[in-house]
Amino acid sequence: MVLKFRWAKLVFVLATAPTALFPMATARAAMHLSVPRHAVGSDPTASAQVRAVANWAVRTGDNHTLPFVIVDKVAAHLFLFDGQGTLKAASPVLVGLARGDVSPPGVGDRKLSQIVPTDRITPAGRFVANRGVDLSGQDIVWVDYDAAVAIHRATDVTPGATARDRLARLASASPQKRRISYGCINVSDAFYDGFIRPTFSAGSAIVYILPETAPVDALFPIAARSEPLEQPAGHSALG
Questions:
Q1: pTM for this structure?
Q2: Which of 39, 66, 145, 218 is an S-S bond match for 54, by CB 3.0 to 4.6 Å?
Q3: Total of domains in the chain
Q4: Would residue 33 count as lying in a domain?
């Protein structure tokens, strides 16, 4: 969990307006595009669902030309695109220990010791994310502020697994072994500093987290098919 500032909540909420998708209400930007567009690039680790959501986001204008991230929880992998849909980087990630797509009520206000393993969920949906800081002053990216879900470095201090444990899990080829966090999305220091921080330093970006308990179409109005990827008192964010 990442520590967050209550006094900064209004600023973050107004800036990020995270919108988890149950259900998704988009179709909105599609009518403003005169020419269909498609995500570009290629990555053998990208699933059909990742490809479909990336292409849909750019084709319909759902990303509003902002950079965007797609997190595939099943594969425990993250894909970073620029605003035109070009794949810029991809990386293994650590995600929530528990299988699920909806954050338990009030989880963002609990102490880490109160979050049982079955509640350690990385929520699925569409989120408008922004950079912020935790209570230790470490910079992070808030994905869902109310649920205390963020993208942050795997080495950030969090009770439970040590930085060494997390880095060892991050290096594992097994997606299942990368299910260890309290709900946050953990990346390597090099990936955070080289790609995540520069992307979010310029402003907001969209984060799409794919579901694992329902078809991707349940959240995103696309057909999943294989296509070429052309803060006064604080509380902790899920580590």
A1: 0.79
A2: 39
A3: 1
A4: no
